Amino acid sequence: MSRTWIALGAVFGLVSVAMAAYASHGLPPERAGLAMTGASLGAWHGLALIGTGLLAERRAGRLVHVAALLFVAGSLMFCGGVFLRALGDISLGLVTPAGGIALLTGWGVLAAAALVSPAR
């Protein structure tokens, strides 16, 4: 499963760079800033997924995988919602802020995974 997290992190990085490039060259300034916010958070959480996948290879335990799952779900909901808003003025309502909460929770769970001894 750790390789899956690493691969998804790389995909999130790819999508984030592509969106940043499109925002810089293809979107009007009022929408470009919004797209850049989504791209920035997508890139950071792509790196977080890569790190989480590497940690999962070194440590047993469910918390690392829960953190990774929260990063995936949160990135899809938050960044996806921001991208849709920037590209087509489409609102997902509470999905976007729920994604932000999932990202925040993922960081907390990752901290716990790093500190707590995994069950054997």
Structure write-up:
- The protein is an all-alpha fold.
- Helices cover 86% and strands 0% of the residues.
- The chain is built from four helices and no strands.
- It has helices spanning 2-26, 29-58, 62-88, 95-115.
- Helix 1 (2-26) packs parallel to helix 3 and helix 3 (62-88) runs antiparallel to helix 4.
- The two termini are 18 Å apart.
- The mean pLDDT is 93.
Any chance you could write out the topology, listing elements then pairs?
Elements: H1 2-26, H2 29-58, H3 62-88, H4 95-115
Helix pairs in contact: 1-2, 1-3, 2-3, 3-4
Helix-strand topology string: HHHH
Gyration radius, rounded: 15 Å
Class by alpha and beta content:
mainly alpha
Uncertain stretches of 5 or more adjacent residues: none
Cα separation of the termini: 18 Å
Helix content: over 70%
Query: What percentage of amino acids are in beta strands?
Result: under 5%
Helical run tally: 4
Q: Using the alpha-carbon principal axes, give the shape.
A: elongated
Mean pLDDT, rounded to whole units? 93
How is the biggest beta sheet arranged? none
Give the strand tally.
Answer: 0
